[in-house]
Amino acid sequence: MLEIKNLHVRIAEDETEIIKGLDLTVAAGEVAAIMGPNGAGKSTLSYVLAGKEDYEVTEGEVLFNGENILDMEVDERAASGLFLAFQYPMEIPGVATMNFLKAAMNAQRKARNEAEYTTPEFIKKVKAASSDLSIDFNMLKRALNVGFSGGEKKRAEILQMALLEPTLCVLDETDSGLDIDALKVVSEGVNALRDPARAFLVITHYQRLLDHIVPDTVHVLYNGRIIKTGDKTLALHLEENGYADVIASAA
Amino acid sequence: MKVQNIQNNAAEDALGVSLPTRRVESFHYTDLRSQLGTFASKAERPSEEVAKKLGDGFPRLASNAAVLHFYDGHAFERGEKLPAGVSANTDLPKAMEVDGLDDTIVAINNKISTDGVAISVAKDANVDRPVGLAHTFTGTSGTTASTRYAIDAASSSTSIFIERFMGRSTDAHLSSSVVAMDIGEGAVLNYLIVQQSGLGAEHLGRISVRLAENAKLNLFILNAGGKLVRQEVKVDVAGEGAHVEIKGVNLVGDNAHIDVTTVLDHNVPNTTANELFRNVVAGDGHGVFQGQIKVAQIAQKTDAQMACNTLLLTDDGDFSAKPELEIFADDVLCAHGATVTDIDDDHLFYMRARGIKEKTARGLLIKAFVDEVVEELGVGEEIEEAFIGVIDNWLDTNVS
Q: What CATH number has the domain bearing residue A120?
C-alpha cells in the first residue's frame, strides 16, 4: 500500500537534511510502528507524507497504492485516502467543528465522484462516531479544537479519521499529552478501525501506546533512516534498553 | 492666496463646502479634497416603476421589519405599518451644527439632503419588530442623494433599527446619511448599518449619539460596497452607567477606500465601551480605522476597550489603524489593540490535509474571521444570518 524508496528530505528554508535515504514498505492491513529518539525525523516523515510545504524532497519517491503522492496537492492526498492525525491539532477559531467535518467529508466525496452527504445523513454518521469515542456531541458545535483539552483534541482527530475512512492512517505521536484513560479511548478508536484494507503508520516515542495498539511491525528511525526493523518485541526491547544499542549495532 | 484650492476646487465648488486635506488630522488617511469626485446636481425623484426595480436583488434582511424607503434620497410611502411604540415625522429634521472641518460630512449633508425622518420610540416601549431605513440608489453619474434622520429613544425603551444602503452603479455618485440619536435613561438602542452600495458610490455617513444614564447603544457597521466610504460615529457618553458597544466588519474590495472613524467622549464617571472591528482587504483596497476614546477628568472608572483586526489578502492592499486615547482621569481602564495578518498557513495546511481545497479552506477561514463578529451581535438569528449572507456574497465576488 505504501512504499517509500530512498527518500531524502530537507527543510526548505535552511536546507537542513532531515530524512536521509529512508526506505519503508507498509502492506494493506498492517500496523507499522515508527519509533525513534528525538530529532530522528519522525514528525518530518509524517508532514512529508501529508504534503507540508516547509519541506523539500530532494530524492526518492513515495508510492501510495502505486501512485507517487509527492506529485499531488495536500487535499488530493487526503481525498486519495491518506490521513494524518496531528501531534498538535490546530485550533481554528470561528469554524464550527460540525461545519468543518461536513466540508471535509463532502470535499473528499466530491473529489472521488461520490454523492455528497445530506445534512441528516451527515449528522447521523457524526453522532454514531462521536458516541463511540465518548465525545460530547455539543462539543462539536464549538469552534474546531478551540478550548478543547489535550485529550479532547486527540479524540477529535480520531473522530475525523473514523468519519473520513482513509486507507492509510498516519498517527503522529497520538499518545503525547494523553492520560491513561484518554489513551485507552483513543487506542480503542484506532483498533476499531483496523481493517484488512487499511494500513496504519503509528509514530511514537514510547512503547506505552503500542501496548494498546499492537503493531505488526516496528521500525526504528534514527538520523533520517530506518536502521532496524522487527516485530512488536523490538518495541519492548527498546523500552528496556533504550535506543543506544540499536544505534550502536547499526553504525 | 488660495493655492491649495487649485488642486481640486471642482469638488468643493460643486458642493459649496470646504473639503479637508490630509493635513486635517481627522482626515489624515482619507484625503477628501483629492479623493472626492465632483457632484454638481441632486438626483431627481425616480418614478415609481424605476424605484420599484432598484431594490431587486436586495432581499429583506428581516422579514418582520417595517421599512421606510428612500430612493435616490427621496422618501417613498410604501404603507408599511410601524411597530407599536414607534412614530415617525417625515419632515426633514433640522440640520446638525457644524464645528469646523471635522464636521465636513455634516456640512455636506446639510447642503444636499432632500428628505429625512424623525423617529420617536415611546417611553418603556419594547419594540418587537425592527425599523428599516432603506436607501437605494440609481447612481447616475455626478449626482447626490442624501438623507437626514433623528431618532429619539425615550427612557427604558428597547428598539432596533437597520439602516441599509443599496446600489449597483459603477458610475461616480455621492450618497450621504446623517443620523442624530438621543438614547434616554435606561433605553437600549440597536442600530445596524449595512452598506452595499455600488462600486462607483462615494458614501459619507455620520451618526451622532448621546447616551443618558444607564442607556445602551449597540451599533453594528457592515461595509460591503462602495468606492470611497467614510462612516463616522460620534458618541457623547453623557449619563453614568451608560454602555457603548460598537462592532464592525469592513470588507474592502479592489479599488475601494473604506474608512470608519469613531470618537467616544466619556464625559461622566462609570461608563463602559467596547469596540471590535474585523476587516478583510482584497486586491489593492485601502482600509482605515480611527478610534478615538476621550475620557474627561471627571469620568473616573471609565472602562473602554478597542480592538481592530485585519486580514490582508494581498500585498497590494493596505489598512491603516489609528487608535487614539486621550485620558484626563486617573482611575480608568482603557486598552486598544490592532493587528494586521495574512491567513495562517498552519490553519490552511490542517484544513487541506482533511481534503478541503485551498480556495475553499481560505474562504472558510476568512468567513470565520468576520462571521464571529456577527454571531456575537445578539440581534436574533434571522438578522445575523442575513448579515452573514451579505458577507458571503461579497466574499464570493471579491475573493478568488
A: 3.40.50.300
